[in-house]
Amino acid sequence: MMEALLELHGHSRRVGLVEWHPTTNNILFSAGYDYKVLIWNLDVGEPVKMIDCHSDVILCMSFNTDGSLLTTTCKDKKLRVIEPRSGRVLQEANCKNHRVNRVVFLGNMKRLLTTGVSRWNTRQIALWDQEDLSMPLIEEEIDGLSGLLFPFYDADTHMLYLAGKGDGNIRYYEISTEKPYLSYLMEFRSPAPQKGLGVMPKHGLDVSACEVFRFYKLVTLKGLIEPISMIVPRRSDSYQEDIYPMTPGTEPALTPDEWLGGINRDPVLMSLKEGYKKSPKMVFKAPIKEKKSVVVNGIDLLENVPPRTENELLRMFFRQQDEIRRLKEELAQKDIRIRQLQLELKNLRNSPKNC
């Protein structure tokens, strides 16, 4: 990766942001310090549209699911929802009490989430109705630190992740369409501060390990990138359909000409089940040795070694509890199966053919 495949020239000042259109092939958006957003058709290597409605530097861009709407935050303290092909501003909020920095569309919920700073200089998040930006639905203060808050949203699990620049932690929330809208769950903690974060696309996750999100954390002091996996703790070896619904895949839904002609289309979905591979269990084969035994009062002391410490006792206790729970579940399933067989047998006896 030493040479560029294509160089794009169009901005009069340096470029600060680039975003791919979520459903269209080879359509790229770029925002520069000339306060303009250029829409590039990479099939021809030229800008085909320009959005010129900002009066200051654009801080963030985000698309809705089908790419028919673009939302931006700007240094002029305004939040905008824009129709990207025409550049027409559909909604605009003047955020004086909540100075917005970053914004993200929340899937198909018709909601926006912004991160910013309150009038008391505390870090804050706000939830907005995309069709009415007159005032936020809710505002919630996070803390008094000064680093930027980066929002990441997973539309498949309705999870919001908040990571602050210079922080070592990542908070996670669940988003819903009903009040209270935002429910704090917990947070990942690390002593190493983060300078920035990238995200692995869904089709690159380890489905067999129940991994639902993966960050790539740029560590400030060490000059390295650290992967952070968000994993749902489940013991089942089967594919977990409830946490892996159909998700946007790699195939584009539109060509550049179709999108520029006014067509909107939802992303082409794919199942992650094809990428599921049951993890092979490593089996250690021990050398065969003659079994020894030390029997006292009918108990083999080598097979039933008593725990030496309190920790060993607790581990043994929890293992036994897990085994009892597993056996109870097995027994309940067998009881259900027995009842089903009894009903089937009864139906067979009562059927007209046996009369």
Descriptive tags:
355 residues; mainly beta; 4-stranded antiparallel beta sheet; 2 helices; 37% strand; WD40/YVTN_repeat-like_dom_sf
Mean pLDDT: 87
Largest sheet: 4 strands, antiparallel
Rg over CA atoms:
28 Å
In the predicted model, the low-confidence regions spanning at least 5 consecutive residues are: none
Q: Count the helices. How many?
A: 2
Outline: globular
Order of helices and strands: EEEEEEEEEEEEEEEEEEEEHEEEH
Residues in β-strands, percent: 35-45%
- Count every beta strand, where a strand is a DSSP E run of 2 or more residues: 23
Estimate the helix proportion, in percent: 10-25%
Given the helix and strand composition, which structural class is it?
mainly beta
Intertermini distance:
79 Å
Strand order in the sheet with the most strands: 1-2-3-4
Write a concise synopsis of the structure shown:
It is built from two helices and 23 strands. The protein has helices spanning 256-260, 310-350, and strands at 15-20, 27-32, 37-41, 46-51, 58-63, 70-74, 78-83, 88-94, 98-105, 111-118, 123-129, 138-143, 149-154, 159-164, 170-175, 182-188, 194-199, 211-219, 224-231, 247-248, 269-270, 295-296, 299-300. The N and C termini lie far apart (79 Å).
